[in-house]
Amino acid sequence: MNNEEQDYEQSGLSRRGFLHGMGGAGAFLGMTGMAPADDAPKDADGKIIPGFEKTKDDPNSAKGWQPVSDRKVRVGIAGYGLCKFGAAFSYQNHPNVEVVAATDLDPGRCAALAKAVGAKKTYPSCEEMIKDKGIEAIYIATDAPSHARLAIMALNHGKHVVSAVPAVFGFEAEGEAEELFNAVKKSGMKYMMNETSTFHADLYAKRMQYQAGALGKVIYSEGEYWHDFGAKGLPGFNPKNGKVDLNGWRKAVPPMWYPTHATAYYVSITGGRFTEVSAVGTPGLYPEYNGGDNQHKNPFGTEIAMLKTSEGGISRMGGSWDMKDAHGEKGRVYGEKPHDKKINGSRPPLPPGVSGGGHGGSHGQLTNNFIESILLDKKPIVDVGDALNMTLAGVIAHQSALKGGEWMTIPQYDL
Fold first, then answer.
1. What is the pLDDT of residue 3?
2. C-alpha distances in angstroms, 369 versus 49, 89, 187, 217?
3. By three-state DSSP, how is residue 319 classified?
């Protein structure tokens, strides 16, 4: 065992479990049961986007699953786009779901999404679909800048909402957070953010350790989201022309505006909160950053944050779009007590036919958790408080980096 492997073992994250939860570094594909998929979404260089490698499902994933209801929740799905997210989370296969409608701003993608999820109705926009009184829940898999706005609208129309990450975005994030929180509170509907790291095998095992009291207080935690976009960048929805292209929302986006794959490695383990943050950034390597003269006024390709936690611990969270040989979503957690190997850290069983899917087998788990939260009237695994803390930690971190590392307070939202 080398030093790196020993470090993972001592932190309670076995090398096997750690790599399974990463979302897939190329050198480890054979070790994690992941392989290239012909239809997987790719970046501008033709490389599969992390988290979408073809993953072998556990043949025993449905063992022990028990239905909690025979009711079907009527779901509308918004967004197909580059990553085909709308169809990637097994709503169409869940025994307690009826996908009744689909939408995407692009007519061709809308039709493809409807076919993929078996929706009989389509709408030209999510705004129009939200008005459908026959829909109980909306899955928002659209571009990041639209998540909060559409979620707030759906909640105000009496719909349960599950949103892709991040919960809020960019310059408007803090105002959106207040509006989103109030919409959830006023509506009484379920809101969940689909943070894939939450159901990574390693993170979930640590969550079980923490909830059992085995770790004590988490003294130190780390989370990382490394994804080199390359000189060509990564396509995203471009509101100026309605297309998914290299001038879309992802161009020169601050890494810490998309932080939750990393920040989940504290919040989704403990349910605790980040309270203060100090961060630094390094100038982006690629021309699109242009010293901060870009659509997001962002000079940074890599941002690293130090954060204080609600239980008196310390976290280091990082995001990078330009570091070489750095890849994946990963983390480490250290508590007052050692990892207890006797505690079962296995993820819950999935309904028959529901695939674990991408991002380390997290997709199906998130869907099942959201649907059960509606059927059982229980808290989703990433509720609005978790979602806003994970997201605002990064948004405020970016502000700190722009100010040279000034310590800043993170707003708190909990129902």
1. 36
2. 25, 12, 20, 26
3. strand
Q: What is the largest CA-CA distance in the chain?
A: 58
Say if residues 397 and 303 touch (Cβ distance below 8 Å). yes
- For 216, other C-beta atoms within 10 Å of its C-beta total 12
Residues 6+ apart with CB under 8 A from 404: 280
Q: In the chain, what are the helix, strand and coil shares in percent, each to the nearest 5? A: 35, 20, 45
Beta strand ranges found along 215-313 (DSSP E): 218-227, 236-238, 243-245, 274-283, 300-309
Query: What strands, in cross-sheet order, belong to the sheet with 160-163?
Result: 121-123, 97-103, 73-78, 137-140, 160-163, 191-193
pLDDT of residue 43: 61
Is residue 363 classed as helix, strand or coil in its secondary structure? helix
At CA 37, angle to CA 32 and CA 42, rounded to 5? 105
Beta bridge mates, 318? 224, 304
What pLDDT sits at residue 2?
36
**What is the rounded distance in angstroms from the CA atom of residue 412 to the CA atom of residue 414?**
7
pLDDT tens, 84-135? 889 999 999 999 999 999 999 999 999 999 999 999 999 999 999 999 999 9
End-to-end CA distance of the chain: 45
Enumerate the β-bridge partners of residue 278.
Answer: 306
Exposed e or buried b per residue across 21-60, where buried means at least 16 C-beta atoms within 10 angstroms of its C-beta? bbbbbeebbeebebeeeeebbbbeeeebbbbbbbbeebee
Q: In the chain, which residues have pLDDT < 50?
A: 1-37
Half-sphere exposure of 183 (CA within 13 A, CB side): 25
**Helical spans, DSSP H, in 326-383:** 358-361, 363-375
Domains annotated on the chain, with CATH: 3-48+196-343+384-409 (3.30.360.10)
Q: Is the peptide bond before 283 cis (omega within 30 degrees of 0)?
A: no
Cα(5)–Cα(18) distance, rounded to whole angstroms? 10
